[in-house]
Amino acid sequence: LQGNHYFWWVSQTTTRLSTVTRQAILRGELGNQCSNYLAKTNGLT
Length: 45
Fold this sequence. Notes:
Largest sheet: none
Number of strands: 0
Number of helices: 1
Mean pLDDT: 89
Oligomer: single chain
Shape: rod-shaped
Strand content: under 5%
Low-confidence stretches: none
Distance between the termini: 60 Å
Structural class: mainly alpha
């Protein structure tokens, strides 16, 4: 029972981490696109 609980915890944590990582990557991509857009509209590029 202890081993099963451990594996369940690991899978839950791994899923949560991958979701957070994916969200962070998407947020970073959006941030890059926004800053690129602002740079273009401000004539910095």
